[in-house]
């Protein structure tokens, strides 16, 4: 498979049209956090800049309200 074929491949969007980026939607937020509890980069998440900003704010709010952990110490 050449480079041009890979880049033209249609990918499914990580955030569906009906889903909202909200700190209460923990099932959505868990997909954008690594196993160690870090927020994944925009490149890994395949998000736009605006979506990444909203996702970061939502994750931080969920952490402050203790809906998701700051660090995941499970090995």
Automatic annotation (TrEMBL):
GO terms for biological process: translation. The keyword Ribonucleoprotein applies. It comes from Isoetes wormaldii. This is Small ribosomal subunit protein bS18c. Gene3D superfamilies: Ribosomal protein S18. Keywords: Plastid, Ribonucleoprotein, Ribosomal protein, RNA-binding, rRNA-binding. One of its GO terms (cellular component) is mitochondrial small ribosomal subunit. The keyword RNA-binding applies. GO terms for molecular function: small ribosomal subunit rRNA binding; structural constituent of ribosome. The lineage of its organism: Eukaryota, Viridiplantae, Streptophyta, Embryophyta, Tracheophyta. SUPFAM superfamilies: Ribosomal protein S18. It comes from the Eukaryota. Belongs to the bacterial ribosomal protein bS18 family.
């Amino acid at each position: 498979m050449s480079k041009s074929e890979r880049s033209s491949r249609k990918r499914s969007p990580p955030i569906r049209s009906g889903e909202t980026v909200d700190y209460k939607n923990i099932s959505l937020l868990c997909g954008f956090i690594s196993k160690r509890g870090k927020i994944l980069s925009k490149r890994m998440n395949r998000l736009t800049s605006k979506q990444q900003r909203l996702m970061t704010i939502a994750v931080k709010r969920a952490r402050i309200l203790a809906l998701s952990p700051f660090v995941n110490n499970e090995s």
